[in-house]
Amino acid sequence: MRDSGLRVEPSQVLVTNGGKQAVYQSFATLLDPGDEVLLPTPYWTTYPEAIALAGGVSVEVLADETQHYLVSVDQLEAARTERTKALLFCSPSNPTGSVYSPEQVAEIGRWAVEHGIWVVTDEIYEHLTYGDAVARSIAVATPELADTCVVLNGVAKTYAMTGWRVGWMLGPADVIKAATNLQSHLTSNVCNIAQRAAVAARVG
Ligand SMILES: Cc1ncc(COP(=O)(O)O)c(C=O)c1O
User: Fold this and answer.
1) Which pLDDT score is estimated for 78?
2) pLDDT at position 2, please?
3) Which one of 39, 52, 117, 159 has the largest count of C-beta atoms within 10 Å of its C-beta?
4) What is the average pLDDT across 30-50?
5) Pocket flag, ligand 1, residue 45 (CB < 6 Å)
6) pLDDT tens digit string along 83-105?
7) Contact 27, 72 (CB under 8 A)
8) How many secondary structure helices (H) and strands (E) does the chain include?
9) How many CB atoms lie within 10 A of CB 53?
């Protein structure tokens, strides 16, 4: 992708009705009932609901202001169990605005690879950084995550196009295929006019 530096094949892309559908479909595709998802807290309110709708269990990992709302690998490791299936990662974060440094992103990515934990990374705020903050995609920082990472994004924040309802998920071809099958029965394709508008926003 032009923006994050990630290279993917067409079979690894699914255009969704906003980033929110990408969040839901990622968990619906990845989780079995009872699977645990590590959820850095404070979090965007949709995450635990999407996890619960998919039969998963959110495991909150609190990062407060004393640690700039950034979870550490030690905290993630302490929360990991045999049922841990995935980590929800959101940097830059809604609601805290915190941005993990490229080094922190790579460290968390390596930890996930080491333990075979999926990373669902919501990068919808990647272009809204200020000062010295650098938003690094965990999929780029840790190429070894290629088979166990789903990247979520959309036009809502970068182009202020929330109402157009265009998002996307990138991931391994089999995950994208499963999510495509699900979406085909849920909502089918995204409105063609909205997709054209998203292309125009990107090129413009
Ligand atoms: C962190 C985060 N991810 C995803 C979304 C989904 O955005 P949309 O469904 O409008 O594309 C939002 C919207 O507020 C958000 O804050």
Assistant:
1) 98
2) 66
3) 39
4) 98
5) no
6) 999 999 999 999 999 999 999 99
7) no
8) 7, 7
9) 12
Crossing angle of helices 18-30 and 46-53, rounded to 10°: 40
Q: Which ligand 1 atom sits nearest the alpha carbon of residue 167? A: 11
- Helices 173-186, 18-30: crossing angle, 10 deg rounding: 120
Return the pLDDT at 171. Answer: 97
Give me ligand 1 centre to Cα 66, in Å: 26
Domain edges within the chain:
10-203
What's the pLDDT band for 4 if we cut at 50, 70, 90?
confident
pLDDT of residue 203: 74
SS3 letters across 44-63: CCHHHHHHHHCCCEEEEEEC
- What is the pTM for the complete model shown? 0.97
- The CATH number for 10-203, chosen from 3.90.226.10, 3.40.190.10, 2.40.128.110, 3.40.640.10, is 3.40.640.10
| Tokens representing residue 105 in the block | 């992103």
- Phi, psi (degrees; rounded to nearest 5) at 17: -80, 75
d(CA 129, CA 97): 9
